[in-house]
Amino acid sequence: MTLTAPPAAPGPVPEPEGSLVAAVAQAGSILAAALNGVRFGHLGDSEAVAVLAALEGLGRKVDGARLRATTDIGVRAETDLGSGSLAYRNGCRNGVEFISQLAGISGREAKRRLKLGETTVERTPMGLPVPARYPVIADGLGSGELGIESAEVIATTLTALHGKVMQDDLDHLRPAPQRPLPAARRRHPRTKRHHGHPLRHPPVRTVAHAAV
Q1: Full domain range(s) for residue 155
Q2: Cβ atoms of residues 153 and 136 within 8 Å
Q3: 137-184 pLDDT, tens digit each
Q4: Distances (CA, A) of 100 to 77, 112, 114, 181, 190
Q5: Buried b (16+ CB within 10 A) or exposed e, 128-153
Q6: pTM above the 0.85 mark?
Q7: Number of folded domains that form the chain
Q8: For residue 99, what are the contacts with CB-CB under 8 A and spacing of at least 6?
Q9: N or C end of the chain: smaller count of CB under 10 Å?
Q10: Is residue 29, in this structure, part of any structural domain at all?
Q11: Is the dihedral angle over the CA atoms 106, 111, 112, 117 positive or is it negative?
Q12: Percent of the chain predicted with pLDDT > 70
């Protein structure tokens, strides 16, 4: 269903005072101040590695929050809501167009987030909570232990397995334990061999698996 949208409301989206928006803005300011003037090439090896790991962990937390927020806006902008849809009220034909304009992302990225959010984010259509289909993936995204790309791969694989694997097995999905990188690989990442073939990079580990 495509709505015939009314004229878009002028001006930016209002920001309620004392809301989560202020906390997010403050967090952004703190990060910007911490990184202001940093020359990464001047950092020692240990600090450079630690900084990248910390930034990646933070980025995964932000990505998880963006996914949850996008999924929520997608529910509020569904065309089935008619004139009560956020998309309609903001002059857009559908939720994808509204999210694209609101977040400054492509329609393809908006669709990507919404598709992943269908199975990994708790939604509240009509004010009633609907649990995520894969709660362990949802937990991993929320904690920052799991990235968006990994979550997509796992969710797509599990969805394909429905009807082929017992639901109880899928419900016991759990994150794979993290293991420290072997010392030999840390020292010689470009010469490590795997099954008789040299690797330029360490093989990617499976980030989650079903309990047996």
Answers
A1: 43-175+190-210
A2: no
A3: 999 999 999 999 999 999 999 988 876 665 566 555 555 555 555 554
A4: 12, 11, 12, 39, 41
A5: eeeebbbebbbbbbbebbbbbebbbe
A6: no
A7: 1
A8: 70, 73, 74, 77, 105, 110, 113, 114
A9: C
A10: no
A11: positive
A12: 68
Looking up tokens 């984010």 gives 121
- Collapsing DSSP to helix, strand or coil, 44 comes out as coil
Closest CA to 131 of 171, 163, 104, 94: 171
Q: What are phi and psi of 209, to 5 degrees?
A: -155, 165
Q: How many CB atoms lie within 10 A of CB 113?
A: 25
Up-side HSE of residue 16: CA atoms within 13 Å toward CB? 3
- Written as six digits, the tokens of 197 are 């073939």
33 assigned to some structural domain: no
In a domain, 194, yes or no: yes
Residue position matching structure tokens 């004392």: 18
Residue 148 lies in a domain: yes
> Any alpha helices (H) in the chain, and if so which ranges?
20-35, 45-76, 86-89, 95-103, 107-120, 135-143, 148-161, 167-171, 183-187
